[in-house]
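Table S5 (text form). Sequence records supplied for joint modeling of the two-component complex.
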Amino acid sequence: MNAVAPDVVFGPGTPEAARNIARRRRADRAFTGLVYAGVAIAVIPLVAIIYYVVRKGSGIMSVGFLTRDIPILSRSVGPGMGPAIIGTLVITGTATLMAVPLGILAAVYLNEYGKKNRLATVIRTMSDVMTGVPSIVMGLFIYTIWVLRYGLSGFAGALALACLMLPIVIRSTEEILRLVPAGLREASLALGASRARTIITVVLPAAISGIVSGSLLAVARAAGETAPLLFTIGAARNRNWHVFGGATTALSSQIFSNAQLPFAGAQDRAWGAALTLIVLVVVLTVLARVVTRRFSVPLR
Amino acid sequence: MIAPPSTTRPPETGAAATNGKGPLHGGSRLADQTFRWVCLASGCLVLVVLGLILFSTSQQAMPAFRAEGLSFITSKNWDPASGHFGALAFIYGTLLVSAIALIIAVPISIGLALFIAELAPPRLRVPVTYVIDLLAAIPSVVYGLWGILVFGRQIGRLYVDIGGWFHGIPILGTLTGDANNLGRTFMTAGIILAIMITPIVTSISREVFATVPRDQKEAAWGLGATRWEMIRGAVFPYSRTGLVGAVMLGLGRAMGETIAVALVIGSSATISAHLFGPGDAMASVIANQFGEATGTFRAALIGLGVVLFIMTVLVNLLARKITGRADRRLAGGKR
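The corresponding C-alpha cell record, covering 635 residues in total, follows.
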C-alpha cells in the first residue's frame, strides 16, 4: 500500500521545498482544526440537552413529584409522576428478568457449544440484525402477538423491551465469555467436571463482572425506550404494581404525551420526568462502568 | 492468580467433551445434556423472534396489503378517512431525514473517532469517550422533548430567516421554502437524528481505526508524513470498508428511530423538497396515528412497520456483510 505520495522530488533547502513544507503544514493544521471543531460540535447538543433537562426539570423536582399521582387534568400545574416511576421500574424489571437469563444462556450456547458451526454463525448474525430492528417494530410485534389476544398490560410492554434487550445481552455476554481463558475450562474438565458444571461454576463466575455491566447497559437502554410501550401498556394514570393487571404508564410515555400538550403544567411534568429518567439511565450506565472497573477478574 | 491460556490446547470437542465419568464428576449426564439443550433453545430464540416478527406483523397487515397491492409503497395518497393508504410520502420522509442525518453525522463521527484514536492528548481521550457514551445513553424521548420545546423553536426562527434570504433563488429557494417557525421540519428531525446516530458511527469507526496496523502508520511517519498525510495515506485506505459499514449501521439506526422524529417532524404526509417544511416518516406515522386507527387503517400502519422492518434488516445485513468482509481481510492481513 502506498503510504504517502512521494511529491518531494527536489533537494532540501530550496525555496520549492520550503514552500512545499509550509503547504503540508497548513493542510495538517486545517485538518487538526476541523477535527477539534467536530468534537466541539458534538459536545454542544449534549451540554444543551443536559442544561435544559436539569434547569427545567429541577424546577418541579421534589419528593412529592416522585411519589404523588399524575394530575387528572393535564392542564393543572404541579407535581405527580409516581405511577410512571412505578411503571418504569416494574416494566423494565420484568423485561430484565426475561431477557438477561435467556441472553446469557444464548451467549453460552454461542461461545461454549456452537462456536463456529453454521447455526451459531447464523444466530450471531441474526442477533446483530435484531439489535438493528426499530423499537417501534418490536412494539407492533408484541401488539399483534400478545395485546390483540390478552390486552394491554405492563407485561406486554416488558415483552417488547425484552425483545430489544435480548440481542444486546447476547452480544455483550459473548464478547466477555470469549475472554475467559481456555485454561480455566480445561482445568475444570480435567478434574472431571461436566461441561454444564464447568460453565456454571467456572466460566460464568470468571466473566460475571462483564456480564453484569453489559446487562446494566441493556437495562439502561430499555428503561428509556418509548416506542415499544406505545401500543402495549396503554395510558393509565393510576398506580399499577401488578405487571399483568391491565393498562399502566411509564416515565418515557408520560414525557412523550406531555411534550405534545400546549399546557405549561404538562410540559413542566415532562421535563421533571425527563430529569428522573436521565438520572436513572445515567446511574445505570455509570454503575456498569464501575462494575467493570472494580470487580473485573483479570482475565488476561 | 489465573493460569495463562495454554498454547497447546487439545481440540475441545475431543478428549475433554467425552470425559463424563471422572471421580469428581458433578451432576448426571442427563443434566449436562439438558443444560446444553436449554442453551441451544435460548440461542434459537433469536431466530424464532425474528421469524415471528415478520410473520405476525405481515399477517395483521394483510388487509391493507390486499386492498392496496403494490400501490401501498408506490402511491403517495395517504387518506385514512377515504381508505387510501399509499405510504410513499413516508418512505420518502424516512429516506430524506436519514440522508440529512448521515450528511451531518458521518463527518463529525469520523472526526471524533480520529480524535480519540490518533489526535487526542491522553487527558482528553477519556472525557470525550464519556461524552459519546452519554449521548448514546440519553433516551430518544428526551431528545424529542428538547427538540419540540427548545431546539425547534430556536432554530425555527433561523429557518424563516434563511428562507427569506434565499427566496426566489432557483434551487436554494425551493429547499428553504415554506419555513416552519416552530421548527417542526425534516431538517430538525435530521439534525436530531444526526446527534442520535453520532455515538454508534463513532464507536464503530473507532474500532475500525484501531485495526490499522501500527507498522503502516509508523512507515508513514518514518517517511516524514504530517499527521494528516499519515491518516490520509495509511489510516483511510486501510479502513475504508469498515467505515462504509459504520455508515450503514448509522443509516439503519436513523431509519428506525421513532419517538424523537415523531415529536419534531411536523406530521404532514407530503413529498416536498422543502427541508424547512413539515413532513413525516414511517416510524413517526406509526407512533402518531396508531392510537386512533382501526380496521384497515390499523392494518396499514402495521404494514408500514413491516416495510420498515424489511428495510432496516436489509440495511443491517448489508452493513454486517461489509464489516464482516473487512474483518476477514484484517484477520488475513495480520498473519
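Note: The radius of gyration of chain A is 26 Å.
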